[in-house]
What we know:
Elements: E1 4-8, H1 12-24, E2 29-32, H2 35-44, E3 49-55, H3 63-73, E4 78-83, E5 95-98, H4 103-115
Parallel strand pairs: 1-2, 1-3, 3-4, 4-5
Amino acid sequence: MLKSIAVVDDESDLADLFSEALKTSDYDVCSFTDPILAYEHIKENPGNYSLLITDYQMPQMNGLLLAMKLLEINQSLKVIITSCCQELKCIPQFRFIRKPTSILEFLKIVNETVSSPQLYFSN
């Protein structure tokens, strides 16, 4: 059973865009523009989330560190990292979406990640 998806991006326009696209596809979504607040919220409710979609480059805490800290709390959490940096594709346990991307491609990757039983991906 799919639980909530957490979307974390310090650019509020992108956080809103991704969240609305997911809600339109019938996902339960909680979005954050502050990675520290996202961490604190998810840490208090670790079983409520099955997928984290986070931007890599954010102030205070980057998306990779956020994902690693949350995986210490919930090892079954699936992770998608968004970034304009190509080199992040080398992290096998996370999916990667290079920005900018179309909403259709974004939703395709989310759907594949949600439906996949594995936590390790090859991008």
